[in-house]
Design goal:
mainly alpha
Length: about 100
């Protein structure tokens, strides 16, 4: 941030518009990267839940497997992960 003492010159309108467009493009790029990283982390979380269940010998139906694998809801994935550690049955994972 710059501060001026005395009269300050503003960039010409086309220059200002171009600068703001670059700023908006940069923000959009950062948003897209953050969104992709979030989705990648959630997919990894879902894969971890499936691994925990497989190692524990908890059988899942194809529908249950798909439900976990495709979920991108962090709260739901966290609930399922907690239940996957202790459940004796796949059905218990999906209880409300």
């Amino acid at each position: 941030m710059r501060f001026f003492d005395g009269p300050a010159e503003l960039p010409l309108s086309p220059e200002l518009i171009a600068r703001m467009e670059r700023m908006m493009d940069d923000l959009q790029t950062r948003h897209d990267v953050a969104q992709a990283e979030t989705e990648q982390a959630q997919a990894g979380f879902a894969a971890s839940i499936l691994t925990i269940l497989r190692i524990r010998g908890i059988a899942l139906s194809e529908e249950q497997h798909t439900q976990i694998a495709e979920s991108r809801d962090s709260k739901l994935l966290t609930r399922w992960a907690t239940r996957a550690e202790t459940t004796a049955s796949a059905t218990n994972i999906f209880l409300p």
